[in-house]
Design goal:
The chain is of the alpha/beta class. It is 47% helix and 15% strand.
Length: 438
């Protein structure tokens, strides 16, 4: 048998990732009740950080070999410029790997420059890996089709050198475009949605949908204040936040949350959890903090939204916990549609807040009489090439979907971004939803 020492370094990284993943499952299943809250929270975050870094190590080795090792036998390998290039590549990879650690140590009211640089490198890392893999695949296909897979020559060497250069150039260009796109204020997208059984007195009711703000290492108070100003300018009747508001503990990032206290929608502001709220392991404190800003969490519960024109007219606004709470075995939490819709009959319109589109699908399978579901989570893929994965993994990707005769699902592409301060193939959005009665 081959010993662990004899395995190539990529295989060692894969084994390490497997060990970390196993430890995550073990701690969730058997240690959750034995560890105190704070220890459990730090253990989960550390495990997730180590898991991500062990997976990235395999990609980083490929990047180093493609952009550095490939050129070590060239005449320029001994030059000062090549030495600077090696330092630049090493720094780039080190920053990309450190991005996940900033969530543990560098979260404050406003983002640190180091966090922004680290997550920018992470975004560029993802793009670079994609182009290196794609161009490498094209090169291998060309060799196979040309029948020269075993031949080596000057032309092959030139193509081998061209591949990483082209990948780096494309990565730099797309990174700059992505940074510029994400630096723009969210676009305001106005959508009219007919809601079956919505009272005529509530026709044209305006709901502003926010999702995936991700307060944390790269999103702080300034950006949140901008979002709040934009929401107030729309003068919504109701404001809803459908999860992933934060990536940090309430106590640490409380000053950055203060702008939310300025939201003053006359029929209320409501919140449901996303998967990232459960990653903070601090949901209870977040609920209390949001309540202090007059934002009502819908923890598998519902409220009656009464028409300002007639107290006898109303619809049911319900919210469910994110499905990740069940995966994480988060005590007292988890998607419970029956509890959330208790008292909501098909005689009145039903609007459901559910962070993940897969939860929307499950909800409609159980209660097809739901008229409208508002979700987020996908970010519209946020950056290329992740868009394709997000599209394939979610039953509803982004925008408005009609399901059956009287049901609609709207998936927000996100109001900010997660970690990586870039947008490629997607745009941050504040959604202005106009409810129409039939």
């Amino acid at each position: 048998m081959i010993s662990f020492k004899q395995l190539p370094i990529e295989a060692k990284a894969a084994v390490a990732a497997g060990v970390v993943f196993f430890s995550m499952m073990l701690s969730r299943s058997y240690l959750a009740e034995k560890l105190d809250f704070r220890t459990r929270r730090w253990l989960l975050r550390l495990q997730m950080t180590l898991f991500a870094n062990t997976l990235m190590l395999m990609g980083s080795l490929h990047v180093w070999r493609s952009t550095v090792t490939t050129f070590t036998r060239s005449s320029a390998a001994s030059s000062f410029c090549f030495m600077l290039w090696k330092i630049a590549v090493f720094t780039f990879l080190a920053l990309a790997h450190s991005s996940f650690f900033t969530l543990l140590f560098l979260v404050a009211e406003e983002p640190y420059f180091f966090s922004l640089a680290a997550y920018t490198c992470l975004g560029a890392y993802i793009i670079l890996i994609f182009f290196l893999f794609t161009l490498g695949s094209v090169e291998q296909a060309y060799k196979f089709l040309a029948g020269r897979g075993s031949k080596a020559g000057t032309g092959n060497k030139n193509r081998t050198a061209l591949k990483p250069v082209l990948a780096v150039v494309l990565t730099v260009v797309l990174t700059v475009i992505g940074l510029l796109n994400a630096s723009q204020p969210p676009t305001v997208n106005s959508v009219e949605i007919p809601v079956h059984k919505l009272p005529s007195t509530m026709n044209n009711l305006k709901v502003v949908l926010l999702s995936d703000i991700h307060l944390g290492p790269t999103v702080g108070k300034t950006k949140l204040a901008m979002i709040v100003r934009m929401v107030k300018a729309l003068k919504p009747d109701i404001t809803v936040i459908v999860g992933d508001l934060t990536d940090a503990e309430a106590k640490i990032i409380r000053p950055a949350v203060e702008p939310l206290g300025e939201l003053d929608s006359p029929l209320g502001t409501y919140f449901v959890t996303g998967n990232h709220e459960y990653y903070t392991s601090d949901v209870s404190n977040w609920f209390e903090l949001l309540k202090s800003f007059n934002i009502q969490p819908l923890h598998n519960e519902n409220v009656k939204i009464v028409s300002p024109k007639s107290t006898s007219d109303w619809f049911c606004l319900a919210g469910v916990d994110d499905i990740e709470a069940d995966v994480l075995r988060y005590s007292g939490h988890g998607m419970d549609l029956k509890k959330a819709l208790r008292g909501c009959s098909s005689e009145h319109a039903i609007v459901l807040l559910a962070h993940q589109p897969i939860a929307a699908k499950w909800a409609l399978q159980e209660r097809p009489d739901i008229n409208l579901i508002l979700s987020g989570h996908t970010h519209g893929g946020q950056i290329f090439p992740l868009n394709a994965g997000a599209y394939l993994l979610n039953p509803f990707f982004v925008g408005l979907y009609k399901v059956g005769q009287n049901t609609f699902v709207y998936v927000s592409p996100g109001t900010m971004y997660y970690g990586i301060p870039m947008r490629l193939g997607s745009r941050a959005e504040i959604t202005e939803i106009i409810l129409r009665s039939p």
